[in-house]
Amino acid sequence: xxxxxxxxxxxxxxxxxxxxxxxxxxxxxxxxxxxxxxxxxxxxxxxxxxxxxxxxxxxxxxxxxxxxxxxxxxxxxxxxxxxxxxxxxxxxxxxxxxxxxxxxxxxxxxxxxxxxxxxxxxxxxxxxxxxxxxxxxxxxxxxxxxxxxxxxxxxxxxxxxxxxxxxxxxxxxxxxxxxxxxxxxxxxxxxxxxxxxxxxxxxxxxxxxxxxxxxxxxxxxxxxxxxxxxxxxxxxxxxxxxxxxxxxxxxxxxxxxxxxxxxxxxxxxxxxxxxxxxxxxxxxxxxxxxxxxxxxxxxxxxxxxxxxxxxxxxxxxxxxxxxxxxxxxxxxxxxxxxxxxxxxxxxxxxxxxxxxxxxxxxxxxxxxxxxxxxxxxxxxxxxxxxxxxxxxxxxxxxxxxxxxxxxxxxxxxxx
Length: 415
Fold this sequence. Notes:
By secondary structure, the protein is an all-alpha fold. It has helices at about 5-15, 25-40, 45-50, 55-75, 75-85, 90-110, 110-130, 135-145, 155-165, 170-200, 220-240, 250-255, 260, 265-275, 275-295, 295-300, 310-325, 330-340, 345-355, 365-375, 385-415.
């Protein structure tokens, strides 16, 4: 077994048992230790590590983190949470508003943006209902993951599939093939967490997080948020047009963040408040994943089934379980290179299953890690590894079945 794969498994294991490790040991520290070890031992060279890092994702997250902090610092996040929690006696209404809100952000601005923006709101819901923060944060994880299924810009793996599939109307394709299982999954999520919230013991509620020093100006944050929405939507349309340039999401995010830095006198503070620990985590994760991919272990394991990689059960199995070990984005990238045929049903099944794979473990989706890191940044203890899996497992099973059955149904109609 390659050293890089052993390190990847050890990182996963250490994060799984983090609740029994010292409190000061954070997820980003564990991942960074693995990356440094692989660099020092020569399993990946510095130049290969730099090439493995997806700087477009890092740039996108930097802009999103700056915008999400500005929304929080200007009091906008607090106003949204107050609106969601206006009727504290109605858990279904609070959950409905919350799930719809983060789903829309996830579909338009990607799941990572929804994770960063939604974390303080989830904490506010916990404070309002006087329950521990874990449940609302886990509900946020599930909602942003499922919500990202609706659109071609909902998550990075969708973008890879759109680029490979050359769809004439990517928005319409995703709505046709994945909207129904996404809606079924969200409805089940609403019912399931309604039951969980109603049974949750009162107490251990976090304090209502508020900025240390609220910014007097809220309009730059609103302008940046609106600008990011417009740019992402226009970029999505660009996939269908030969006349509009198709720009990387990282560039769009940085451009959208410009008003924050132009129209504020707290530029240095804004840069400091960016979640650098999460950015370090992602840089380290790309290095660890890059070392694993360099070893050829995944490619070697998949090669015996090369002719069967387009079969529905094979796509489902490898997309789901492979995403737990190698992360969904690199797995999708390699899978696309190994597929002999790129028909729409196969690509949509790959997209849906690799996305829903995020609802199993904390490390299964980048948005889960963002939520954990953001909660800790606000001084709130998030969920534990196995606590997360215990609450999301029913949603995972229902959503996987719904996705597989719906795509199989559409295939049977066309056949």
